[in-house]
Amino acid sequence: MRADTDVLDAIREAAQDAPRRMRKAFKRVVKRTRQHMLDDLRDQPGRPHYPLRWKSDRQRRYVMAKLRREGNLPYQRAGRLSAGWTTHIRDQKDGAVFEVVNNVPYARFVQGDDTQPYHLDTGWPQAAKVTVKYRDILINDLIDAWGSVALGEG
Q1: Which domain range does residue 75 map to?
Q2: Do 103 and 84 touch, CB atoms closer than 8 A?
Q3: What does the pLDDT look like over 35-79, one tens digit per residue?
Q4: How many domains does the chain fold into?
Q5: Which residues pair with 90 in a beta bridge?
Q6: How far apart, in whole angstroms, are the C-alpha atoms of residue 75 and residue 66?
Q7: Of 3, 34, 36, 142, which sits most exposed with the smallest number of CB within 10 A?
Protein backbone atom coordinates (compact mmCIF):
# COMPACT_ATOMS: atom_id res chain seq x y z
CA MET A 1 0.00 0.00 0.00
CA ARG A 2 1.33 3.41 -0.93
CA ALA A 3 0.15 6.66 0.73
CA ASP A 4 -0.30 9.79 -1.40
CA THR A 5 1.24 12.79 0.40
CA ASP A 6 0.02 15.55 -1.95
CA VAL A 7 -2.52 16.82 0.59
CA LEU A 8 0.01 16.85 3.43
CA ASP A 9 2.52 18.68 1.21
CA ALA A 10 -0.09 21.30 0.31
CA ILE A 11 -0.97 21.84 4.00
CA ARG A 12 2.71 22.22 4.92
CA GLU A 13 3.29 24.78 2.14
CA ALA A 14 0.17 26.74 3.10
CA ALA A 15 1.24 26.82 6.76
CA GLN A 16 4.73 28.04 5.90
CA ASP A 17 3.33 30.87 3.77
CA ALA A 18 0.51 31.78 6.19
CA PRO A 19 2.35 34.56 8.14
CA ARG A 20 3.17 36.47 4.96
CA ARG A 21 -0.37 36.08 3.61
CA MET A 22 -1.87 37.11 6.96
CA ARG A 23 0.24 40.30 7.04
CA LYS A 24 -1.10 41.16 3.59
CA ALA A 25 -4.65 40.33 4.67
CA PHE A 26 -4.25 42.46 7.85
CA LYS A 27 -3.18 45.49 5.82
CA ARG A 28 -5.99 44.95 3.31
CA VAL A 29 -8.64 44.68 6.04
CA VAL A 30 -7.32 47.70 7.93
CA LYS A 31 -7.15 49.84 4.80
CA ARG A 32 -10.75 48.97 3.95
CA THR A 33 -12.05 49.99 7.40
CA ARG A 34 -9.67 52.85 8.19
CA GLN A 35 -11.31 55.51 6.01
CA HIS A 36 -14.76 54.91 7.50
CA MET A 37 -13.33 55.28 11.00
CA LEU A 38 -11.43 58.46 10.10
CA ASP A 39 -14.59 59.91 8.54
CA ASP A 40 -16.47 59.28 11.81
CA LEU A 41 -13.68 60.79 13.94
CA ARG A 42 -13.35 63.85 11.68
CA ASP A 43 -17.07 64.57 11.68
CA GLN A 44 -17.61 68.11 12.95
CA PRO A 45 -20.84 68.85 14.77
CA GLY A 46 -23.15 71.71 13.91
CA ARG A 47 -23.67 74.78 16.04
CA PRO A 48 -23.56 74.22 19.82
CA HIS A 49 -26.67 73.96 21.95
CA TYR A 50 -26.86 76.70 24.54
CA PRO A 51 -26.38 77.18 27.39
CA LEU A 52 -23.02 75.41 27.40
CA ARG A 53 -22.17 73.28 30.44
CA TRP A 54 -18.80 74.42 31.76
CA LYS A 55 -16.75 72.36 34.18
CA SER A 56 -16.51 75.45 36.37
CA ASP A 57 -17.05 79.21 36.21
CA ARG A 58 -13.26 79.58 36.33
CA GLN A 59 -12.92 77.47 33.17
CA ARG A 60 -15.59 79.55 31.40
CA ARG A 61 -13.79 82.80 32.25
CA TYR A 62 -10.43 81.38 31.13
CA VAL A 63 -11.77 80.14 27.78
CA MET A 64 -13.63 83.38 27.06
CA ALA A 65 -10.56 85.49 27.93
CA LYS A 66 -8.36 83.29 25.72
CA LEU A 67 -10.76 83.57 22.77
CA ARG A 68 -11.01 87.34 23.29
CA ARG A 69 -7.18 87.66 23.28
CA GLU A 70 -7.03 85.62 20.06
CA GLY A 71 -9.76 87.73 18.45
CA ASN A 72 -11.85 84.60 17.97
CA LEU A 73 -15.22 85.73 19.32
CA PRO A 74 -17.62 84.59 18.18
CA TYR A 75 -15.63 81.36 18.07
CA GLN A 76 -14.74 80.04 14.60
CA ARG A 77 -13.38 76.51 14.16
CA ALA A 78 -10.04 76.28 12.37
CA GLY A 79 -10.45 72.58 11.46
CA ARG A 80 -7.13 71.48 12.99
CA LEU A 81 -8.77 68.97 15.32
CA SER A 82 -10.60 67.11 12.56
CA ALA A 83 -7.59 67.22 10.24
CA GLY A 84 -5.37 65.88 13.03
CA TRP A 85 -6.76 62.33 12.95
CA THR A 86 -4.47 59.79 11.33
CA THR A 87 -3.62 56.12 11.52
CA HIS A 88 -0.43 54.06 11.43
CA ILE A 89 0.34 50.39 11.02
CA ARG A 90 3.45 49.35 12.94
CA ASP A 91 4.92 46.02 11.96
CA GLN A 92 6.17 43.95 14.87
CA LYS A 93 7.98 40.64 15.09
CA ASP A 94 4.83 38.74 16.00
CA GLY A 95 2.29 40.78 14.03
CA ALA A 96 1.26 44.38 13.55
CA VAL A 97 -0.36 47.16 15.56
CA PHE A 98 -3.00 49.50 14.15
CA GLU A 99 -2.84 52.93 15.83
CA VAL A 100 -5.30 55.81 15.70
CA VAL A 101 -3.69 59.12 16.68
CA ASN A 102 -4.50 62.81 16.98
CA ASN A 103 -1.50 64.92 18.00
CA VAL A 104 -3.47 68.17 18.29
CA PRO A 105 -2.80 69.23 21.91
CA TYR A 106 -6.44 69.86 22.82
CA ALA A 107 -7.86 66.70 21.17
CA ARG A 108 -8.10 64.92 24.51
CA PHE A 109 -10.31 67.70 25.90
CA VAL A 110 -12.71 67.63 22.93
CA GLN A 111 -12.83 64.00 21.78
CA GLY A 112 -10.66 62.13 24.25
CA ASP A 113 -10.66 60.82 27.79
CA ASP A 114 -10.69 64.32 29.32
CA THR A 115 -13.65 65.61 27.27
CA GLN A 116 -15.23 68.69 28.77
CA PRO A 117 -19.03 68.74 29.29
CA TYR A 118 -19.65 71.49 26.71
CA HIS A 119 -17.91 69.43 24.00
CA LEU A 120 -20.26 66.54 24.78
CA ASP A 121 -23.14 69.02 24.44
CA THR A 122 -21.91 70.25 21.07
CA GLY A 123 -21.90 66.72 19.64
CA TRP A 124 -18.24 66.01 18.95
CA PRO A 125 -17.76 62.28 18.27
CA GLN A 126 -15.96 60.63 21.16
CA ALA A 127 -12.80 58.81 20.06
CA ALA A 128 -13.23 55.91 22.49
CA LYS A 129 -16.71 55.06 21.19
CA VAL A 130 -15.66 55.35 17.54
CA THR A 131 -12.50 53.27 17.97
CA VAL A 132 -14.34 50.54 19.93
CA LYS A 133 -16.95 50.34 17.16
CA TYR A 134 -14.28 49.90 14.48
CA ARG A 135 -12.14 47.64 16.66
CA ASP A 136 -15.03 45.18 16.78
CA ILE A 137 -15.50 45.43 13.01
CA LEU A 138 -11.76 44.88 12.45
CA ILE A 139 -11.63 41.88 14.78
CA ASN A 140 -14.48 40.17 12.94
CA ASP A 141 -12.97 40.97 9.53
CA LEU A 142 -9.56 39.69 10.66
CA ILE A 143 -11.09 36.45 11.92
CA ASP A 144 -12.67 36.00 8.49
CA ALA A 145 -9.34 36.84 6.82
CA TRP A 146 -7.52 34.28 8.97
CA GLY A 147 -10.07 31.67 7.97
CA SER A 148 -9.27 32.35 4.31
CA VAL A 149 -5.52 32.32 4.94
CA ALA A 150 -5.71 29.09 6.95
CA LEU A 151 -7.61 27.45 4.11
CA GLY A 152 -5.00 28.67 1.65
CA GLU A 153 -7.43 31.05 -0.05
CA GLY A 154 -6.10 34.44 1.15
Answers
A1: 29-150
A2: yes
A3: 999 999 999 998 887 888 888 899 899 989 999 999 999 888 899
A4: 1
A5: 97
A6: 11
A7: 3
